[in-house]
User: Fold this.
Amino acid sequence: MNEEEILNLIKTGEGLTLELKEGLNSDLGKEICAFANAKGGKIILGVKDNGEIIGIKTTNALTSQIQNFARNIDPTLSVEVERIKDLVLIQVLEGKKKPYSVNGRFFLRIGSNSQQLNRDEIRDFFQKENLIQFDNLINTKFNFEEDFDEYKFNNFLKLAKITSNQDRKGILSNLYLLDEDYLKNAGVLFFCSEIKKYFLQGIVNCVLYEGKAKTNIIDKKEFSEDILSNYENAYKYIISKLNTSYIIGKEREERLELPKEVIREALINAFVHRDYFSNGHIQIDIFIDRLEISNPGGLVKGLTEKDFGNISLPRNSLLMDLMLRVKKVEKVGSGIRRIKDLMRSYKLEVEFIHTDFFRAIFQRPIINKAVEKTTQKTTQKTTQKTTQKTTQKILEEIKKNHSITRRELSEIIGITEDGIKYNLTKLIKTGKIKRVGPDKGGYWEVL
Assistant:
């Protein structure tokens, strides 16, 4: 590796396959061990965590010390050490005799951290997962010219604060997303123009129901862009369907009925920890009394019930790394605890069910006693006004065109066809309109 290449690598920042260290210390063995148990990686000495280059005195003695750290790992490892100007590059290859330990402790690289696990957990994890992770597989069908979205790629670089004079191929290689000029599945999920062109199971399905059961659908939406867009769109959809309330204190505070951080955390878990080998998709169901977020894949193999919420073993470590880079994940392994704490602060319950699917169920406050009666009345009036405006628009369009279809009404009014169907049903029940003739070939009559 030449000087320009190592500088570009530093600009990529710490992640799943890169660790930056100011100098040699006792943690080096831990980092080497973690990389060997994961996908391998590079350690650069002479650089601060923020990417500032301070340099390090490169001597033969330093090289010997680094090799000693590697030899102290069980089973013994060998690493490549390269001196580039006043920096030292340590190349750690993925181990062939996993799991590895140092001083009797086992470490695994997760995102930009090296997390300690016990031997049984690491052994079970690698044995049962057969070392195969969906996000790490190359995708030979992906067409760079047709489907690689440069805007999404540049947006990712901006969010991850990666500045480099390298070309696209160099950056993707440093992010461990290229293999023999093929993009890996993690890269396809992030930078494709439409996700279901390559993975039908990559869509997100959102449904709003009228009551507590999956009987009457008020609204329905499917998202099938790249993984970041799907995440943001799903979050916005949920937020738009929940209520806000006023909390009484020294000053009235308006807040969403569920903590926004909980919704974001649960969505990230669904995207990062789901089983992409499964044909199932992420499902979001909003009922009057609860919000459910479901994804295929229960607990990662190797984890037990007692580990749940305490240890994080990502099913898709490359995806986790990319999400960490764009700050969608805050702290590895603490998400479930944060969700429970936040729900408890709202005096609401949360339930986690894990079979072949993982489901997070969040209680909604049907009646919030802390909300002022005047606020409740205002909210009801606002909802009624919105509904009245929608039904009035529908009536006006039917008067203009008695043969208008649900699809045409949906395009004109700006809500889904399921939303139109829901409002038409209400208008029929209240005697405002009636359908004359069959669905096809018939017409509407305003009463």
Summary: Residues 368-376 have pLDDT under 50 and may be disordered. The two ends are 79 Å apart (CA to CA).
